[in-house]
Amino acid sequence: MATTSPPQKLAPRNIVKDNDLSTWDLAWRQNVTPWDAGDVQPSLKEAVESSEIEFPREGRALVPGCGSGYDVFYFASALGYESLGLDGSQTAVDVANKLREHQPASLSTKTEFRIEDFFQFKVSDEERFDIILDHTFFVAIPPSLRVSWGRQMAALVKPGGYLITLVYPIDEFIESGPPYFVRPEHYLEPLGNDFVKVLDKIPEESSPSHVGRERLVVWRRV
Questions:
Q1: What is the rounded CA–CA span in Å between residue 18 and residue 204?
Q2: Does residue 9 register a pLDDT over 80?
């Protein structure tokens, strides 16, 4: 008797096209969002709440590729930051804004979500950020854009500010993406001499999907 194979589960690389930002919205509308864990990653909490780095207790945070916005809310809650999330997907921003409606005023007034192309995003020197988080954004862009990613990070993080990179997924090599193949050393060339590494470790706690597949690296803007 012939057997029928179960339908193959879609992955972002089956939907997203490098030259068409709108396909990220298609992934959101089809609920193909494996990067959305439904909460803040434990590794981010470890970076912010441990005593290894004394982050300023007030300032501005940016999360490119913010998705549902959990990390944006976290920076507003844990550090009291004015926190901005950028995403290329209208659906993602709609989800984040709906969650924002249910936050206490102390958080909703400190958070904002915008549809924006990260590579075209500009702020004045006075508006630069104290912290930028990259979690699953670096691996979402084609490797050919990584140098541009580094230049943009240097332009947006204020001197003395921080770039938190949650390096994930650290898996076997695969040519296609997203997510694209990544190793911690892949950040070195794009960031160049504009940043110095101040923390590099395997997190003490990871979410189930991240166990053995992530590294926490924090950089300070020089």
A1: 34
A2: no
